[in-house]
Amino acid sequence: MQKVLLVTALILLAHVMAVAQWSDVGQLDTWGTTTITRMPKPGDSTYLIGMRTAKGPGYERTVFEFDGVIPPFMVEYVKGPLFETTAERKIRVRGRYFISVAFQGLPYPDDEKSPAGRLRTPRPTAGMTLLNEVKEIEWFEGTRDWVFGLNARKPFRIQVLTNPNRIVLDIKR
Predict the structure, then answer these.
(1) Cα–Cα distance between 8 and 2 in angstroms, integer?
(2) For a disulfide at 124, which of 79, 130, 131, 158, Cβ 3.0-4.6 Å?
(3) Dihedrals φ, ψ of 85, to 5°?
(4) pTM for this entry
(5) pLDDT tens-digit profile of 93-113?
(6) What is the pLDDT of residues 17-69, one digit of tens each?
(7) Phi–psi pair at 17, nearest 5 degrees
(8) Domains of the chain, residue spans
(9) Distance between CA atoms of residues 46 and 114, nearest Å
């Protein structure tokens, strides 16, 4: 029993330390190719309840919608096309360039019939020419990771919107 408690405490400590390593980096609502992270003030549990793609004038957009506070997040270009999970499973994403979007502090929903439990990763909207594929790589211990496979390395911008709470990823065409 003590070993189980010790292992659980170590896992929790590692998670807290990982969260603490993120800080506010990069400019919101500005086009660029550098990493953007935000570590909002903690609040009640939040769930990702919606995710959708759309084609806009000069950009391709993905919207993440939450039913609570905006969670800590990181958006950055990463190397691909193979991505490894914590279970060492390899996931291939179609594209030549890749943007990773990671959220921390997202619990599993208690009810699989809730919006958070029914959430599905969207496919690129018709007419999108830059975005090849969106894949969820992993949801482990509250951290949820997606990778966006792109045809070209283009600037992106992140917007944080309210009512409802959303994070918007626009990728310039």
Answers:
(1) 10
(2) 131
(3) -85, 175
(4) 0.81
(5) 999 999 999 999 887 667 665
(6) 444 467 889 999 999 999 999 998 767 778 888 899 999 999 999 999 999 89
(7) -65, -40
(8) 24-172
(9) 13
